[in-house]
Write a structure and sequence with these properties.
The chain is mainly beta and about 650 residues long. The chain contains three helices and 44 strands. Among the domains are: about 100 residues, Immunoglobulin-like, CATH 2.60.40.10; about 100 residues, Immunoglobulin-like, CATH 2.60.40.10; about 90 residues, Immunoglobulins (Immunoglobulin-like, Sandwich); about 90 residues, Distorted Sandwich (Coagulation Factor XIII, Chain A, domain 1). Strand 40 and strand 41 form a beta hairpin. The longest helix has 26 residues.
Length: about 650
């Protein structure tokens, strides 16, 4: 009877454990279908589409963050947008605007006929990512994508865009966008603009005879201190019959909007600097509207001079009226010295033009001594990225005073270096891998005494860093950790990040905390990270940032569930039957049970073992919870195509 009871109890517990063990989390399911702002597009359109809208809020308790991503059906997924934060995404349906193209987010050209999912996943502050997601399946069809289940047997189209006026338009003036679709298929063209980081619709127009035309006067104009507003315009053809024709997008066309009445002023001299005193010098100022095809500006031009490099001491040279967009003045009495010359345009009253002035033109009246500048680079190349290079400029004659600006092509390296004893030098570790055309430009302190000069270019080769760029993280035992590892509060790991300039300072920030820093020895930064003891469960991010390179380490914090649960027991294990004696000498132990009890003991032990299995399964199931998945932020470069 007792044996039957024990057996029944153990079996029921075992079955319960088995049932609970196999009752684990199901595969991710859909929370509903996302609504995309369009049903098709090009894989290189940036953004891929304008917006994605969820049919419902995130599940209750999972509204801390939401992220828009894309990946092959079933994953893995990468970002299409910056993650939404701040909470509240479990209160009502919401919209996310992508900022990347399909191709950029995928990290490759997506394969023809491949199936992908656009998803929105939801995150809890404590539980991590919800197991299910909002979803919109898409299909790749050549260089396009569609929300249709299969690719249409459709003809390829091309779309080109022309903008009138070309290049520049006045604020508030009409701009005509003309899209030409080949072949001349029926459909609609959606015109878009990208202004800075903002992408928005300009409008749409039907295709008639292979063209769609839209005229607008509402392109954003410069505001405040802005001198101009730059736009990139595109045209996307959306066929009336997607089964017959594929969508296509034009190359971007650049258009700059400037204030109405803006002009450019250009000052020219008929002779090169320097010139001896008494030389007759002809000054000409050209005043042109910023928009081609506008009528010539009217007004006058004043020619003035300032001490070279000065901001005050402006003196008038003379003035002249504009004729056919130009004004001219001849002078022969400029005193000796180094000057900045400029032309100042004053518009005629009521003309609608805006005042403007030319850039400064440096001109020397005098006979300065010529100088020569030579450049040497040490150590001799090629050298790996991060190597400290010394650039030395030698200026002759040695009594020439001034400064040297070292250049890498058109990029200045550091600031201007003073010439001392006929030489100036600069040390740098900032040259990236590749070929660098280096030169030194000497600017005299007194241009009347000495002329400026530029060295011949020295081509220097910088090779890849001695160690491969990247990230390596190891735990306290030296084990390498994978992508997005799970760490515990108080856990210590070693983070090694490569690819920095040699010996530069690398700023290190954990989440939004106070930054610290380390020195990147030979381009490699090493940091000992201890996860804060009070770190909350969920996504965490460590950023190591140099001047031109940064490495990101994402990980998930999961707290230690110290309920013991190790099943090790604390009994004395001497098998004496009393739990504390040795049962050995003098009959102090508990003695032997009758032989008739042996089968019962066997049954009891078996039952206890089965109870342990069942209970372990119960505890395992109760204690198992979905790992908190980190919020995945977009790659910062991104985000550009």
């Amino acid at each position: 009877m007792a044996a039957a009871a024990v057996f029944a109890l153990s079996m029921s517990t075992f079955i319960a454990g088995v049932v609970l063990t196999f009752n684990g989390p199901a595969r991710a399911a859909t929370l509903g279908t996302l609504t995309l702002s369009q049903t098709s597009g090009s894989v290189i359109d940036k953004p891929m589409f304008l917006r994605a809208t969820t049919p419902a809020p995130c599940p209750k308790g999972y509204g801390e963050n939401a992220n828009l991503r894309i990946g092959p059906a079933g994953g893995p997924y990468t970002n299409l947008a910056v993650a939404l934060g701040g909470g509240g995404w479990d209160l009502e349906p919401f919209t996310i605007d992508p900022n990347r193209s399909f191709e950029t987010a995928a990290g490759r050209v997506p394969e023809d006929k491949s199936k992908w999912w656009v998803i929105v996943d939801c995150y809890s502050l404590t539980e991590g990512r919800h197991a299910d997601e909002f979803r919109a399946p898409v299909q790749v069809c050549g260089s396009t994508w569609t929300t249709e289940a299969t690719c249409p047997a459709a003809a390829t189209t091309t779309t080109t865009l022309t903008v009138t006026p070309e290049g520049t338009a006045y604020a508030g003036a009409p701009v005509t966008l003309t899209a030409t679709v080949t072949p001349a298929a029926a459909g609609t063209v959606l015109f878009r603009r990208t202004t800075g980081t903002e992408t928005a619709d300009v409008g749409s127009a039907p295709v008639t005879g292979g063209q769609a035309v839209l005229t607008t006067s509402e392109l954003p104009a410069p505001a405040g201190a802005e001198a101009e507003k730059a736009h990139k315009l595109t045209a996307t053809f959306q066929p009336a019959d997607p089964a017959a024709f594929l969508t296509s997008t034009s190359a971007p066309a650049d258009l700059t909007v400037v204030p109405a009445g803006s002009v450019t002023v250009t000052l020219k001299t008929d002779k090169t600097s320097p010139q001896p005193p008494g030389t007759e010098l002809a000054l000409t100022a050209e005043v042109k509207p910023r928009v081609e095809g506008e009528q010539a500006a009217t007004g006058s031009v004043s020619f003035v001079r300032l001490p070279a490099g000065g901001s005050s001491g402006e003196q008038a040279i003379g003035s002249a009226e504009l004729a056919a967009g130009a004004a001219a003045l001849t002078v022969a009495d400029l005193p000796g010295g180094a000057y900045d010359l400029k032309a100042v345009f004053t518009p005629a009253t009521g003309s609608g033009w805006l005042a403007a002035e030319s850039a400064r033109t440096r001109f020397v009246i005098g006979t300065p001594k010529e100088t020569t500048t030579t450049l040497a680079v040490a150590p001799a190349g090629p050298k790996p990225q991060g190597t400290e290079l010394t650039l030395t400029a030698t200026v002759t004659p040695a009594d020439a005073t001034g400064s040297v600006q070292f250049m890498d092509g058109g990029t200045a390296l550091g600031g201007a270096q003073l010439v001392a004893g006929g030489a100036a030098s600069l040390k740098t570790t900032q040259l990236a891998a590749g070929s660098h055309p280096l030169k030194a430009v000497f600017t005299p302190q007194n241009e009347v005494n000495h002329s400026g000069s530029t060295s011949q270019e020295v081509t220097y080769q910088v090779t890849a860093p001695g160690q491969v760029d990247g990230l390596e993280v190891t735990d306290a035992d030296g084990n390498k950790l994978g992508v997005n590892p799970t760490l515990s509060p108080g856990q210590k790991v070693t983070v090694v990040a490569r690819g920095f300039a040699g010996n530069e300072t690398v700023a290190i920030t954990l989440n939004d905390g106070e930054p610290t820093s380390v020195t990147a020895a030979d381009g490699t930064a090493r940091y000992e990270l201890t996860v804060p003891a009070d770190a909350p469960d969920g996504a965490a991010r460590l950023i190591l940032a140099g001047a031109a390179h940064r490495v990101v380490f994402d990980f998930t914090v999961v707290g230690n569930d110290d309920g013991d649960g190790d099943g090790d027991g604390e009994g004395d294990g001497d098998g004496d039957g009393d739990g504390n004696g040795d049962g050995g000498d003098g009959g102090t132990g508990g003695g032997q049970l009758p032989r008739t009890g042996l089968p019962l003991i066997g049954i009891g032990l078996t039952g206890m073992a089965l109870v342990g299995v069942g209970s372990g399964a119960v505890l395992s199931t109760r204690r198992r919870r979905p790992e908190s998945a980190p919020v995945v932020w977009p790659d910062d470069e991104n985000p550009t195509d």
